[in-house]
Amino acid sequence: MSRAKPEDGIAWITGASAGIGRAVALELVKRGWRVAATARNVDLLESLAKEAEALGGKVFVRPRDVVDRGRMAALLSEIEAQDGPIALAMLNAGGFFESPKGELIGENFRKTLALNIDGTLNSLEPLLPLMQGRGRGQIAVVSSVAAYGGLPLAASYCMAKSGLTAMCESLKMSLDRQGVTLQVISPGFVRTELALRAPGPKPFMIEVDEAARRICDGFQRGGFEIAFPRRMVWMLKALGWLPYWLYFWVLSTGAQRYL
């Protein structure tokens, strides 16, 4: 597994205006990377660029909505032509529109899938040929520990993130032979605005700067999955080995007052 280095090109991050994406952008700047930052909110991207400049680094402001397939393809051409070859990419744009207390609101599911699944595909589709043509590159797709199994009050989010993880597992076997490193990032609860407004308990929550350090360490270390915090990762993976009757009892008991 190859690891991208700052001298290989630039890093590109989607969903970079806030939360984990913003924190990782700044952490990469501290580690010597130049970063192209993509999100819808131009003002937040501009403030990120100023913060990076104060650290002695460079963030290129490249606003775009990842759901807009046609304009994402044009964006990749713009970045490569003006900022440099993308050596490292973190496809982070995501979120959820949850249906409350088990209600199935189809529109909320469709919006969650559009942002997480379509947004990732719209980024990955024009990016892969660039890296495959060079025979090198590193891509990390942000999934979640919610991909490990169905969690209470998170049906659309679990659906989207499990799809991303399965996609990465499948693609990795081909991309390894083409010199492109593919990783999946599976965070637990990180103290961001998105996490704080999610319903239900939030065990083992960590600060966003700590999450960024762990992610960037994972870029350098390699390995397919960057997952944290370990207590939550292993707890949820262990739950996946249980028979369904016990799996549902454990999770519903833990979230009983929220259901």
Q: Could you provide a short overview of the structure?
A:
The chain is an alpha/beta fold.
Describe the overall structure.
This protein has nine helices and seven strands. The termini are far apart. The chain is 49% helix and 15% strand. A seven-stranded parallel beta sheet has the order 3-2-1-4-5-6-7, with helices on both faces. The longest helix has 29 residues, at 106-134. Helix 5 links the parallel strand 5 (137-142) and strand 6 (180-187). The chain has one domain: 3-Layer(aba) Sandwich (Rossmann fold), CATH 3.40.50. The protein has helices spanning 19-30, 42-54, 69-82, 106-134, 155-175, 193-196, 208-221, 230-239, 244-254, and strands at residues 10-14, 34-38, 58-61, 86-91, 137-142, 180-187, 225-228. Helix 3 packs parallel to helix 4 and helix 4 (106-134) runs parallel beside helix 5. It is of the alpha/beta class and 259 residues long.
What is the beta-strand fraction?
A: 5-15%
Report how far apart the termini are: 43 Å
- Kindly report the spatial arrangement of strands forming the biggest sheet: 3-2-1-4-5-6-7
**Helical content, roughly?**
40-55%
* Overall strand count: 7
Order of helices and strands: EHEHEHEHEHEHHEHH
Second CATH tier, the architecture? 3-Layer(aba) Sandwich
Query: Quick one: CATH class?
Result: Alpha Beta
Please mark out the parts with pLDDT under 50 across 5 or more consecutive residues, or reply none: none
Kindly state the mean pLDDT as a whole number? 94
Within CATH, the superfamily carries the name NAD(P)-binding Rossmann-like Domain
Number of domains: 1
- Oligomer designation: single chain
The CATH topology annotation reads as Rossmann fold
Quickly give the structural class: alpha/beta
Radius of gyration: 18 Å
Main pleated-sheet profile: 7 strands, parallel
Give the overall shape, derived from the CA principal axes.
globular
